[in-house]
Amino acid sequence: MSGKIFDDPQSALAGALFEGMTIMSGGFGLSGNPESLIPEIRKAGVKDLTVISNNAGADGFGLWMLLESRQIRKMISSYVGENKLFEQQYLSGELELELNPQGTLAERIRAGGAGIPAFYTKTGVGTVVAEGKPVETFEGEDYVRETWLRADLAIVKAWKADPEGNLVFRKTARNFNPNMATAGKLTVVEVEEIVEAGTLDPDHIHTPGIFVDRIVLSTINEKRIEKLTTRAKEVV
């Protein structure tokens, strides 16, 4: 077996956590959250964290746990809804927030993984998003300059991995995870299943193992429904 495989989430994060670090955390809403690794970060007690994630979980789950323990100093996100604690901490001045258009956030992460320090986009031109950022004109249109995002640690949730760290994501749980796997100095992946080497179809691999440093089997796979909507029962 590969030396990338660890026995449990705690050992997979050993030596990776420190005060004031920047962490990328995969997920969109409650889909594709690294739900086994986040509780271990909480237990470690490291504070003054900058966390890059689409959102901060939902009430009682995901990154909400690190907000509740007051370990996060700054969020770099694109969505703050469905999380009352996130809202309260931001409005009270407890939590710093760098809000990004969602596509811009994804591209900043991708750029970080690709080694591209900056790029230009029309999204946000003429709004508060562009405040303090260079704006240039290309072919008669204004574009705002955005910079890459990188992290000390990327925590990622995948469906399957082989011992070399080649990853397959399942449907919408893919979301930000593949890009984040490329943009961390250290990438730790929790997976639902570890398969034997050579069993993954190369055409089905979403993230090559070269980007993955550590792999651990998930201990939590709740797959919660963030907002359940049902049709009213018809009265006959």
From TrEMBL:
Entries under SMART domains matching the protein: CoA_trans (SM00882)
Protein name in the entry: CoA transferase subunit A
Pfam families listed in its UniProt record: CoA_trans
This protein's UniProt keywords: Transferase
Superkingdom, natural source: Bacteria
Organism: Sphingomonas tagetis
GO molecular function, one term: CoA-transferase activity
InterPro entries tied to this protein: 3-oxoacid_CoA-transf_A (IPR012792), CoA_trans_fam_I (IPR004165), NagB/RpiA_transferase-like (IPR037171)
